[in-house]
Amino acid sequence: MSRNLAIAALLGTAACSGAIAAERMVTAPAPTVDAALKAGPMQTAVFAGGCFWGVEGVFERIKGVQSVRSGYAGGARATALYDVVGTGVTGHAEAVEIKYDPAKVTYGTLLRVLFSVAHDPTQLNRQGPDSGSQYRSAIFPQTTEQATLVRAYTAQLGAAKTWPGKIVTTLEPGKPFYPAEGYHQNYLRLNPQQPYIIYNDLPKVAGLKERFPTLWSDKPAA
Length: 222
Prior knowledge:
222 residues; six-stranded mixed beta sheet; 7 helices; Peptide Methionine Sulfoxide Reductase, Chain A
């Protein structure tokens, strides 16, 4: 992936890298259009917001989330490999797949967290220190209802000028998610002392707890 090799070696990163530069955070308003909490089968959300380590670390701490996996979305199965995705020409973005209980958390709430603390939706083809289309801000709706909710919420945030810049998040329906290699899973929890994690990702997790205490789970999802 795009990186300065010397700094990457210094930080000990295997994936997300580059100079240290944490992203901005806001407290986005609650969506005015959302699905209601209701009992039913587990639902799936797929988001891309830069390095998947930090995005996974945020969403695994939300009440009602049952599991989070890091992976790739936007390209073909054959190119869903870390070293290939890192070329920036596969169409893939680093993404996370979130399984959640619709009786405990709504899709709109997950969107709110994505736009508030998980990433900066105004950065085009980059997040923080990482650049390339594989780090783009993107949402991969799993249903037509999810796509409708994304359009409504991004329009709401744009009208409210929640971010000083334009939201560049892409909506990419119909594109499968492919799990990343095993060493990328649970990376933040397994490597809390790694400099990249400390400077770029742990602040996002702390931001979730500070800004949305009622969503915070002391026990991370599987």
